[in-house]
Amino acid sequence: MKLLKKVLWAHDFSAASKQVEETAVKLATVFHSTIIPIHVLPDDIINDNVRAHVIKKAEEKLEGTVSRLQDTGITIGGSILEYGSPHECIVNAAVKVNANLILVGSGEGLQGATVHLGTTTERVIQKSGKPVFVAKAGIPLNVHHILCPVDFSQASERALKNAITMTRRFRAELTILSVCEVRDSNWLISKEDLEKENEVRLAQHRERFDAFLDKFNLTDLNWTKETPKGNPAKEIRSAISRRMIDLLVMGTVGRTGLNRLIIGSVTEKVIREVPCSFMTLKSEDVFDLQLDSDIKDLETLDKAAGELMENGFYEEAIGQYELSLGINNMHLPAYFGIAQIYDKLNDPVKAEQYRKRALEIKDRMWYTKVEDEVRKLRGS
Questions:
Q1: Mean pLDDT over residues 117-140, rounded?
Q2: Of the candidates 127, 154, 222, 325, which lies 20 to 30 Å from 369 by C-alpha distance?
Q3: pTM of the prediction?
Q4: φ, ψ at 374 (rounded to 5°)
């Protein structure tokens, strides 16, 4: 089962790209992904000899990159060498190869612990409808704590759904944050009335937050929620520092009235100086779950169902177990597996039904075995 099938890695051959390469390997290892490196050359080199030399060097570097990646045991989907505007070539290539994720570096402009986005990376985020993973230069991808800010929009709903899957696969901790924007001082309202107004506002925000979270499967997930008051961008950056966040997952808006892809004001303010790696999602999910319904091997089906259950895809896991029962209606692991899922879904009635059925089959199999042994002893 592959949740993250193809990662298009934008390789610029810079010193910082070594860290991005390690991130590519880590993502491919965790999600069994195929990596496709891409490098973009300028298309305005006039001298033929210079152009030929640059192309040759780029091809050699790409070949070396592919060789190193293959040595790690991950799958490579070829490599791409393009000419023109880097961000346009990267965005177009992602569509052409049907990548699930674009991986880029954050840039090398550092100020203390803060990374300032490079121009190409920022434009890729702006223009791409594909999810974009930005690896922070100089820091290995060791994901222990993920932050996902939400504002109850469709974009943040998509971000949280993908952040949950990312959390499960990395066995990390997830903080879900929703900032309540309160009113500032107003000469028309007394300080006491303003405080009451903001308390009501916060209470209503928390109710919406809880209703929003009810849409998601957070069972067996190591997660917490925060509802700070204040400026969203400021509070998000504060949470990243305070909770030592390794990965930020944020939803972005779609298109403007001019049909131009944009980032969104809060997201833009946060990611321009974010001190950790981050992932943005706009109109597509990172994870694309496609199940093979033609599998006839019980062991393979059980393994797939177990992975689905571990990743929180409970309905899909039940479907895989039911395929097993279609092959053998006395297949005990399927009954016990479905019972375990219904335990997680807090449905004890259905869990007991499947567990009882499994025990009945187990008893029947035992009695059948005893009868066979008795017949052997009697010589019948």
A1: 88
A2: 325
A3: 0.84
A4: -65, -45
Tokens 């891409």 sit on residue: 38
Do residues 102 and 95 make contact, with C-beta atoms less than 8 angstroms apart? no
Closest CA to 7 of 72, 118, 104: 104
The whole-angstrom separation of Cα 102 and Cα 374 is: 65
Query: What's the CA dihedral at 160, 9, 13, 25 to 10 degrees?
Result: 80
The single residue listed with the structure tokens 């919406």 is: 208
Q: How far is CA 249 from CA 17, 92, 148, 194, 286, in A?
A: 21, 23, 5, 33, 11
Question: In Å, how far are 33, 50, 331, 342, 357 from 351, measured between CA atoms?
Answer: 34, 70, 16, 5, 10
Alpha helices in the chain (DSSP H): 17-31, 48-71, 86-96, 119-127, 154-170, 191-213, 232-242, 265-271, 298-310, 314-327, 332-344, 348-378
Give the Cα separation of 236 and 225 in Å (integer): 13
- Dump pLDDT digits (tens) for 267-294: 888 887 788 999 999 989 998 776 666 6
